[in-house]
Design a protein that fits this description.
Elements lengths: L27 E6 L4 H13 L4 E5 L8 H7 L2 H4 L2 E4 L2 H10 L3 E5 L6 E2 L10 E5 L8 H6 L2 E4 L11 H14 L2
Parallel strand pairs: 1-2, 1-6, 2-3, 4-6, 4-7, 5-7
Helix pairs in contact: 1-2, 1-6
Length: about 180
């Protein structure tokens, strides 16, 4: 079976990640607007955790982490990313704007810009991801400072909601 080798070990030091608000960079949160699929919600929570999002606002018909399918796909991220449920997303966004949050929508429409144009921001930002079929509620889009779309090369007009969030979360974190 071969020789036994001694492996030298090093103590691992885990450092607390820096607080984004103290580094001059804003915090990020996600708002899920009427997402139908519990699997999409779980996947988005998992990606939100990976990109350092500090909160997930679950609105309308969006399943919460009490749902087994959300837990199955989030792989514990529901315990790492604080979340809250809100029946009325429009009311929530109006309140977040009063608190100084910038609201970004992820939607393709006549007002949207390519996600490639996402610029660095030092402000707190909420990224809205909408319903898999109908998209982001038009009332919410009217409250957005900016609306971004992900350029597509194929015939389809959109990515799966969880995939789209992952792309947008990366673009948002890379721009910070």
């Amino acid at each position: 079976m071969g020789e036994t080798r001694i492996v030298l070990t090093h103590d691992l030091v885990f450092e607390k990640p820096p607080d984004p608000s103290s580094s001059g960079r804003g915090r990020s949160a996600v708002l899920l607007d009427n997402i139908r699929s519990a699997w999409n919600v779980g996947s988005i929570l998992r990606s939100a955790e990976g990109f350092g999002f500090m909160h997930a606002y679950l609105c309308g018909i969006t399943p919460t982490p009490e749902n087994d399918a959300v837990q199955k796909t989030s792989l514990g991220a529901e315990d790492s990313v604080p979340w809250s449920y809100h029946k009325d997303a429009v009311k929530l966004v109006k309140g977040l704007k009063v608190e100084g949050w910038k609201i970004y929508g992820l939607e393709e429409n006549e007002k949207s810009s390519s996600i490639h144009g996402m610029k660095k921001t030092k402000t707190d930002t909420v990224l809205i991801v909408g319903n898999e079929v109908t998209g982001v509620d038009p009332e919410l889009l009217n409250l957005c400072e900016k609306i971004f779309f992900i350029p597509m090369r194929g015939e389809k007009k959109s990515f799966n909601a969880a995939v789209a969030f992952g792309i947008a979360a990366y673009a948002l974190s890379a721009s910070r």
